[in-house]
Design a protein that fits this description.
The structure is a homodimer of 160-residue chains.
Chain A lengths: L14 H22 L10 H6 L7 H8 L3 H13 L3 E6 L2 E9 L1 H25 L1 H19 L11
Antiparallel strand pairs in A: 1-2
Helix pairs in contact in A: 1-5, 3-4, 5-6
Chain lengths: 160, 160
């Protein structure tokens, strides 16, 4: 198959859109399937919250920084998810004036559902481009993510 | 290198985050470099507009649909970019009551700058994981994007 091109310029797509288009397709599929599975309040924007949360809980500023959003925008998403029982705020044991945002039992059920749906989607994608190519793609993306994580000045999911 | 894991669950990352993390890194780098090159008004959210625009112009509803955003959110981005000279609205030749959103000369200069910056970034990424692996990754992503584009019900950048 020939390389996909940008609609506007007709030039071959660069990595930006090559990464983004499958991600957007995945997010849409995931949202639709989660609605079917009973998690009807979730919108694609909410995934950025769960993707950024640390196991011990995270401060709002950390979530915003990791997700590349303003504190105000992240606060809006967190308020929504807290209101629907997916998150709770607890005092930070390291600083009683601060709050940590943590997942709830409902979020753990959501996490299981996400895992199931993404496994289905992986199988569907492997069916389209071939299992060997799919596995190779996943490994190469893993290498890239590891390489970018090691880059000074571009930390992702750094531990506290 | 071992596979990267989700911070929250410790499970191996699925395709969602494997695609998203490099994309977010790319968007941040691109925004920073574009600011240095004189396109100081641009924020990461604006890329979704240019990525969705068709050469002959696009209607607001089409842009919103392609980008997976509400019409209101897309309208906000388009207003901002029009106010800064990157876009203009013209009557749709197919329907005088409707408007098409088109790029300007300033957007064409922006497009050249984006191409330059992304080529730099591609070289940097190829330096990290190896040129052969990088080219393989780019080809496999192209195959996946083509495969998803052919999927019924998941059109990306369909022509009018």
């Amino acid at each position: 198959m020939s390389s996909p091109v940008y609609p506007l310029s007709g030039r071959p797509m660069q990595m930006g859109l090559l990464l983004k288009l499958p991600y957007v397709a995945l997010e849409r599929h995931l949202t639709r399937r989660l609605h079917e599975l009973g998690f009807a309040e979730l919108r694609p924007a909410h995934f950025a919250v769960f993707q950024s949360l640390m196991p011990q809980g995270s401060r709002l500023t950390e979530l915003a920084e990791t997700a590349g959003m303003t504190k105000q925008s992240m606060g809006y998403l967190v308020d929504y998810l807290e209101g629907h029982g997916y998150l709770r705020r607890v005092p930070d044991p390291l600083d009683q004036r601060a709050q940590l945002i943590r997942i709830t039992q409902k979020s753990k059920k959501l996490d299981e559902a996400v895992e199931t749906v993404l496994n289905e989607l992986h199988d569907a994608w492997a069916g389209r481009i071939g299992r060997a190519k799919f596995n190779e793609l996943r490994d190469l993306l893993g290498d890239l993510v590891n390489a970018l994580r090691d880059t000074a000045g571009a930390p992702v999911h750094s531990r506290r």
